[in-house]
TrEMBL record:
Role: Involved in pyrimidine base degradation. Catalyzes physiologically the reduction of uracil to 5,6-dihydrouracil (DHU) by using NADH as a specific cosubstrate. It also catalyzes the reverse reaction and the reduction of thymine to 5,6-dihydrothymine (DHT).
Protein species of origin: Woeseia oceani
Record Gene3D superfamilies: 3.30.70.20, Alpha-helical ferredoxin, FAD/NAD(P)-binding domain
Keyword flag ATP-binding: no
GO molecular function terms noted in the UniProt entry: dihydropyrimidine dehydrogenase (NAD+) activity; iron-sulfur cluster binding; metal ion binding
Assembly notes: Heterotetramer of 2 PreA and 2 PreT subunits.
Domain (4Fe-4S ferredoxin-type): residue spans on this chain: 490-520, 551-581
Cofactor(s) recorded in Swiss-Prot or TrEMBL: FMN
The name this protein goes by in its record: dihydrouracil dehydrogenase (NAD(+))
Catalysed reactions listed for this entry: 5,6-dihydrothymine + NAD(+) = thymine + NADH + H(+); 5,6-dihydrouracil + NAD(+) = uracil + NADH + H(+)
Pfam families: Fer4_20, Fer4_7, Pyr_redox_2
Amino acid sequence: MKPTDTSKPDYFHKVVDCQWACPAHTDVPAYIRLIAQGRFSDAYMLNRESNVFPGILGRVCDRPCEPACRRGRVEEKPVAICRLKRVAADHRDDITERLPKPPAKTNGKKVALIGAGCASLTVANDLLPLGYEVTVFEALDSTGGLMRTNIPRFRLPPKTLDEEIGYIIDMGAELKLNHRIDSLKSLIEDDGFDAVFVGTGAPRGKELDLPGRHDTDNIHIGIDWLESVAFEHTESIGENVLIIGVGNTAMDCCRTSLRIGAKNVKVMARKPRGFFKASDWELEDAEEENVEIVINHSPKEFVVENGKLVGMKFEQMEYQVDDKGGIDRGTVIGETIIPCDDVILAIGQENAFPWIERDIGIEFDKWDCPVVDETTMMCSREGVFFGGDSAFGPKNIIWAVAHGHQAAISIHKYCQGEDLHDRLPHGMNLSSQKMGMHEWSFSNNYDTSERRLMPHVDLRERFKNINVEVELGFTVEQTIKEVERCLNCDIQTVFTEKLCIECDACIDICPVNCLTITEGGEEADLRTRLSAPAENHEQALYVSDVLPQTKRVMVKDEDLCVHCSLCAERCPTGAWDMQKSTVLIPYAADEAAPDRQRAKAG
């Protein structure tokens, strides 16, 4: 192997698995250390740079960072990253004066944002401080999009939504509520906007067209039903409810049902548990509330008698597992009828664009979705951009935020007549964390504490009012314990070959055997000759240049390292150092910075 080039931002970025996994690349370890120091406002603002909605996402993010957390490689449970984000949001001071401010004079460019959800709001957040005149069009009478209509209040309080959305709207966006766009062509051609961003989500729930579907009014589309509950149009439901589907929307439907009258709720899953789409914690929360999850039942028919829904017929399924852990299409082994008063369909969502004319230069694919460039977020018609669920189908809020950041860069470039693909690359800073001979600016002791459990409102209390937030947030004591579980994966072990005397001190003291001095070779060969076999091929090996004494190389398995800093403490020559790697993610403000503009002019 050639010596590893650690000057490229992506090398150390990939070592910080939580940040690498986050679509918005939030600097997770850095904000956890700020929380550990009691600097909640600083932690909140660091979060906000990338994810824009720390209080919202601290409650409802799908947490792609947590399965990637390195803590999960040394014990069962990862750090409670998402819930620590909420700690910063809940305990911050007033940060209004620290928010971006719009300039006194606009730049004369007008941008229309369709939909007041997370993607559009992120675009507004990035463009308003640059002087753009932003108008947000929302069909409903309130902001937030699916964050407000599809996430129940017992998970995401309206106060949290209003506060973080208000930070953006108060920068000077023109908000037009109850203003449905019926014609994109008219908006583009008649209203004088320089660019248009579509962030309308995936607002259409999938149907289940089985016998009996249209013979009763007691069969509901999940996302429409949740919206109706959110706006208090629906205030009750039957005592026996079946939820069809087992994604996160299904979990919201079953838990909401219990709060407006249901006594017996079953979630009907067509496949075994290992193939559910719902997050583990969503399933746990539902089962804590005595929701029954029934596996291997495929819907066959709605049973309606004299116009009344009385049950649903299911095929009972059996599956064979293949050698890769997958399952076949299943075999029907029987049928059963389960009684019910209402059925809620939560089997997926789709994009819906009846208001986009098909003769205005926007290309649609075979699923009737716009074809969108994944880098620039622009469709085939110049000046029209998409993001969030409306671009690539249903995902989580954090994905929509990431799309919004990229779309804002593109909109800025488009409005300024620049090449949309000429984007600033990621950068990186490395800074030593040494404070003394054996002292570091971070807590490097490995803490054996188990993951803290989120305290919940008592079961008897949470069903009295649909607005009672179930999760209470971490206590001070829980926060102190949980922050110490972070392994500080952004504090890198940086090696300087010319200082190494090959004394093996670092190898002797490494508690996880991630260091080896050996002869060079090809990667496949090196992986078999290390102190501990490097079996995770998705994680890189660090390979030094040749060492001055024997011309061997230092090899480090990044997969095993727990960033304990013992190698740097033990090294007698300072060949090892602990340095914070900060990945610099460009945003629209960076593209518009005077230095960037001067460089282009030069």
